[in-house]
């Protein structure tokens, strides 16, 4: 049984109602204590199992800080100054460092741009995934290795046992991003945040990684928060989209509704900027744009 089928089997053995809210961000405000100003103003969204919410916006619009607040990893000078974040029904405001250690990876996990910087260059990549499994799942060294190889197969790596033994410098950017996704899902989180996770990849590899995320959501019920400055990425995978500008959500709605009938001038600008990259092929479809 592969890792993904194991995950799917474990979940189907205890089916969860799909309207169970696994992440609720309500009226989130992030404040810069040094400059005494709010830089994220009232962001709200909810994730249920298998749902994909996207955040799109230009550089500096507050996308990453929204993710970092959700993961409890804001830079020191920044604080959550308003609103609430609940993960699996639990308000994160009162979490201790030990609670966060338990939660990160096993309930909420993340992948970012530049996977190489999140992997140790002097350790075989498979061993790094196995390490997560040993720590988070308490498996033996041998069982963790087996599961890590299964996970590499689950993220569509063709020769997982060989790749397990390789180092980061031997792998392409797309392969490294797959390895990082395997590590991120190793402890069966319910929520995965993908912050510009495909930005550094060429268009074909980017599409493959988005397919992989869609496949994981389909098979395991993983809920996804996908952050990108690129509307084409959002169009390919998200059920719902929030358009951010200067720390505020200027427009939100189902992806196909926002792409077909943008209400805000800034959304229209984003769409027109992306036409040249092929967004029109999603806009031309009569079906919802996000269906893969
Ligand atoms: N460590 C920090 N200290 C102070 N201000 C910060 C810090 N990180 C971000 N900011 C401020 O918050 C704003 C939002 O940053 P954020 O990284 O969330 O933007 P973003 O939409 O993710 O952009 P990008 O796509 O470039 O990552 C920035 O314009 C910056 O002014």
Describe the fold and architecture.
With 292 residues, the chain is α/β, with parallel strands linked by helices. It has one domain (3-115, 190-283): P-loop containing nucleotide triphosphate hydrolases (Rossmann fold, 3-Layer(aba) Sandwich), CATH 3.40.50. It is 40% helix and 23% strand. It has twelve helices and ten strands. The chain has helices at 3-13, 63-70, 97-106, 125-137, 141-154, 160-164, 173-184, 203-220, 231-237, 255-260, 265-274, 280-283; strands at residues 23-32, 37-47, 52-57, 78-87, 90-91, 108-112, 191-195, 223-228, 240-245, 248-254. The strands form two sheets. The protein has a six-stranded mixed β-sheet with strand order 6-7-8-3-9-10, sandwiched between helices. A four-stranded antiparallel β-sheet has the order 2-1-4-5, with helices on one face. α4 crosses α5 (141-154), α4 packs parallel to α7 and α5 crosses α7. The site of adenosine-5'-triphosphate has 14 residues, from α2. It is a peripheral membrane protein. Belongs to the ABC transporter superfamily. Residues 25-271 form the ABC transporter domain.
